[in-house]
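Summary for the steering committee. The consortium agreed at its last meeting that each partner would contribute one worked example illustrating the joint modelling workflow. Our contribution is presented below. We chose a case with several input lines so that the handling of multiple components could be demonstrated. No manual editing was applied between input and output; the record is shown as generated.
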Amino acid sequence: MIDKRVASLAEAVAGVPDGATVLVGGFGAAGVPVELVHALLEQGARDLTIVTNNAGSGETDVAALIRERRVRKIICSYPRSAGSIWFEEFYRAGDIELELVPQGTLSERMRAAGAGLGGFFTPAGADSLLARGKEVRMIAGRRHVFEEPLRGDVALVQALRADRWGNLVYNKAARNFGPTMATAAGLTVVQVREFVELGELDPEAVVTPGIFVDRVVEVAA
Amino acid sequence: MTATPLSHTGMAARVAQDIPDGSYVNLGIGMPTLVGDVVSAGKEIVFHSENGILGMGPAPAAGEEDWELINAGKAPVTLVPGGSYFHHTDSFMMMRGGHIDVTVLGAFQVSAQGDLANWATDDAHLPPAVGGAMDLAVGAKRVLVLMMHTTPDGRPKLLPECTYPLTAAQVVDRIYTELAVIDVTSSGFLVREMVAGLTREELERRTAAPLAYAEEVAVLAPTGR
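What follows is the complete predicted structure of the assembly.
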């Protein structure tokens, strides 16, 4: 029998090792798996590389991980949101490493990892500083830069509903990086608002098939 | 200057005139978002948001905000009938893959070759941030820049070469400022429209790159042509 449901947030993040690369879903505050990130904070893993679009703001989720000195490096596209005070403070002090990636490249690098590909050439950023040190090739008369796949040891994702097989549906624009991150990690952990019985999710509407999911935990809204 | 520059809304309205009915459009953060408010009701324009929305509608009424339905600037929006949600990889496939007809972007600088600098200045104090700017600039079929003609302290933003780090090279098609509408051509900037009362000398003084002029330079008026 397949049952990916776990009873607690602590169980959901159990075993994340020090030094892990953790993919964290969300765009701004929409779709951030806040409770899972807080459970990771409790769990205590450190020296983490966090892959996420923004760098957290205020005192919650990724910002809290940074504040508690758990994050060695952040890979993101836009670390300068309003209220990203902890990232900015650590960045200025040289206490956190930043790898800046164009947003579409960030997503596609994770897609490549999830799809078993060795990378791709993209025109995005090929004329910019972000292409420094990378292979650039002319393709169809245009400069393209080679980008490598980006795999996580763990992905933390938020969705709306899951069944015990780990099939997922999302809510509106909170979907964002979730479906791609779910494919790109060794251990994919999802928090949902609600568990439903097997067969209740419309198979035509399932966004992430359960094959990509390892653990699901219910966090009431 | 005796000329009357366009207001921000007037500039946005001028951009909106150039967006054809039926277009898929991505509006950048800042002044470009004004374009969404002034598109003619007679046109059906589908707005794309990088975080996975097609058919993005206006801001909701106070109290109706849904924080899982936000735009690229993280402000709450709505979905129009026919709209859809999708994940980030699909969203950027639309952007890079040439499926977005028009993007309207802000800029720090634009060069006479159409190089765009809109993601970083030379301020080393702030951490760099790029977001979706590079994907959008290389991927949209038409890249329109909506910006003030000069910096707040009067330095030109239309230059022979950008001095700020490039977002993308040779991508800008047309620039709309409070003073003029300017095309980027293979031989540099070509002025298409100027506000009434502005002389060519005055415009050139605010522009660091050479300007050529269309055979008939039209009057850039707030109410359109």
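The domain at 9-118+150-218 of chain A is CATH 3.40.1080.10 (Glutaconate Coenzyme A-transferase). Chain A touches chain B through 47 residues (CB under 8 Å).
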